[in-house]
Design brief:
This protein is mostly beta strands. It has one domain: C-type lysozyme inhibitor (Lipocalin, Beta Barrel). It is about 0% helix and about 65% strand. The protein is built from no helices and 8 strands. Strand 7 and strand 8 form a beta hairpin. It starts with 10 loop residues before the first strand and ends with a strand.
C-alpha cells in the first residue's frame, strides 16, 4: 500500500460528473505529508472532507461511511450504502 501524491502545490481542484447526474467539485489539499479531498456537491454545495488513506491502486480518501476513490479519470463515490461512478 502507498499514498499517491496528487499535486505538488498545497491545493488543486477537479470537476466530476457522476452516473446519477450529480456534479462534484473536488479540491485536493496538502499540508506537509497529510492530504485530503474536499468534495462540494452540485447545487446544494454541501461539502465533506475526507483524509487520504493507503491504497494499492489510485488515490483513496475515506472517513466513516464516506469514500472517494480515484483511478485515472474515473472515481467511485460511496456515501453510506449509495455508490456512484464519476468521471472528469
Amino acid at each position: 500500500m502507498f499514498f499517491l501524491t496528487l499535486a505538488s502545490s498545497a491545493c488543486s481542484a477537479e470537476d466530476y460528473l457522476c452516473d446519477d447526474g450529480a456534479q462534484l467539485v473536488t479540491e485536493y489539499r496538502r499540508s506537509g505529508n497529510f492530504q485530503s479531498v474536499v468534495i462540494a456537491f452540485g447545487v446544494t454545495q454541501e461539502t465533506i472532507e475526507l483524509p487520504q488513506v493507503p491504497s494499492a491502486d489510485g488515490a483513496r480518501f475515506s472517513a466513516g461511511v464516506n469514500e472517494f476513490w480515484i483511478k485515472g479519470s474515473q472515481a467511485t463515490l460511496r456515501r453510506g450504502s449509495k455508490v456512484v461512478t464519476c468521471k472528469r
